[in-house]
Amino acid sequence: MNKILFVCVGNSGRSQMAEAFFNHMSKGKALAFSAGTMPSDRVDPVVIEVMKELDIDISGNKPRQLTAEMLKDAKRVITMGCSTEGVCPATLVDTEDWGLPDPKGKSKEEVRKIRDEIKSRVSKMVEEIS
Predict the structure, then answer these.
(1) C or N: which end of the chain has fewer Cβ atoms within 10 Å?
(2) What is the CATH number of domain 2-129?
């Protein structure tokens, strides 16, 4: 099974949304997981809230530390804009960066825009693998 890895710094916002959207949309055709280079203590509450608006519950998710094993197992690695923050994973695999802003500290409206952009990009990915 194809595994997709979404990486951001804290694994508390962008990568959590991408993982949830991908797993929801792919319906088992592939599997996404996410991790952070410096994981936060918890998923951002505003991110949880805006995902619930679309009936996707990520309230039980926990940020995870990026490991070499995760990178090795992934067919595709997507970074979520961490290069713009000056902290990006040094990987031994090719990555694609989506250049998305960090939702941390942003208003609910701004987080919705980030969420919707992630949803659109993930939808295109799922179409590519189908």
Answers:
(1) N
(2) 3.40.50.2300
